[in-house]
Amino acid sequence: MADSDVARGLEGITVAETRLSDIDGEQGELVIGGFPLGELAGNATYEETLFLLFEDRLPDAEELEDFRADLAGRREISDEVRAVLRQAAEQDKPAMDALRMGAAAANLDQGEEDPEADAKRVIAIFPTIVATYWRYRQGEEPVEPREDLRHAANYLYMLDGEVPDEAEARGLETYLNTVVDHGLNASTFSARVVVSTESDVVSAATAAVGTLKGPLHGGAPGPVLEDLQAVYESGDPEGYVQQKLENGERIMGFGHRVYRVRDPRAAVLSSAAEQFYQDGGDAAFFEAAEEYEEVAVAALEEHKPDRRLETNVEFYTAALLHGVGIPRQLFTATFGISRSGGWMAHCLEQLEDNRLIRPSSNYVGDSGRTWTPVDER
Ligand code: COA
Fold this sequence. Notes:
Blueprint: E1 21-24, E2 29-32, E3 35-36, H1 37-40, H2 46-55, H3 61-72, H4 79-90, H5 95-104, H6 115-137, H7 151-160, H8 166-178, H9 186-196, H10 201-212, H11 221-234, H12 237-246, H13 264-278, H14 283-303, H15 313-324, H16 331-352
Antiparallel strand pairs: 1-2, 2-3
Helix pairs in contact: 2-16, 4-5, 4-6, 5-6, 5-10, 6-7, 6-16, 7-8, 8-13, 8-15, 9-10, 9-16, 10-16, 11-14, 11-15, 12-14, 13-14, 13-15
Coenzyme A (COA) binds next to helix 15.
């Protein structure tokens, strides 16, 4: 059958209805739970964003505190999960492997619960899994989660045992809100496929972490940070970009499959990073990043005049996460901490009106073969 019958990569194929988020790649707009991203990201706590995704409305003050406390009460992981994370750290496995192992073990020591309770538990333990793994990697004992801290602040606290200041917690919270959901991206799709078989949300989270791990999906901000640091030290963004392009390398943090304009998440993260760095961070580092962005966009325009290659979400993710104190090795896992909220909301949405997701394929193999016994082949 002709190749043209195949939607490679399922591009342009609609397989779900969702009220969770909407992307307009031509206009560069992203709506989350009915709010333009810019309206939500810098105002909401991560708990408010989760409530919005779960309930399709904002909570009042009492509902918000109940929701926050409910989530905070589910942060503990068992000794068995800790032992797995210790092994992962001792064997130098990447953070995403540790997160996948921890996610898979999430229901050890848990009674049977309903999908919504399991979904909340998955979201609640992700920071604990990542921070526990990180502490072991540093040769330190894990820091117990604190129920009185918000999701973002508690994650930072568990990484180094220091309660973050409000600017750090707010910076991370803006990031968590910004990347929580993004249409039917690959990891969200894989989560929906898993629950569509009437499997469970812990299995869905495990599959989604595995999907996010791939460099085509979640892996760019680490290399972006290396570029930013190199340019900051050399003070020569033009030379750096030209050298990369001459070597046939891609400039990380630019270009996108869906957006043909600047990724709207870049604007939100750039303002958050600017505020953070100018209120006591290394303001010169942020200015160098802005200059590098300008130079890179211009160089890419010259390099590929027929293709608009604009700044994507990963560029200022690198600057912001670095600023608030997330180690580079945890960037993709921190993306997973945020996106777990979107995955779980999508799973619950899928279950509301489930139909098994089961696409078809065109067979291009041979046919009519006859069997030859092994000693005659
Ligand atoms: N730097 C240099 N050239 C780039 C580029 C970049 N960041 N992004 C795309 N291009 C070039 C490609 O080399 C290709 O050129 P060719 O036609 O001569 O082969 C052309 O632009 C089209 O690229 P393509 O891979 O078809 O675009 P895509 O829509 O499939 O890819 C990305 C989107 C994000 C994978 C791609 O832009 C990229 O690799 N960016 C860098 C990595 C990154 O920042 N990833 C995070 C994404 S959120």
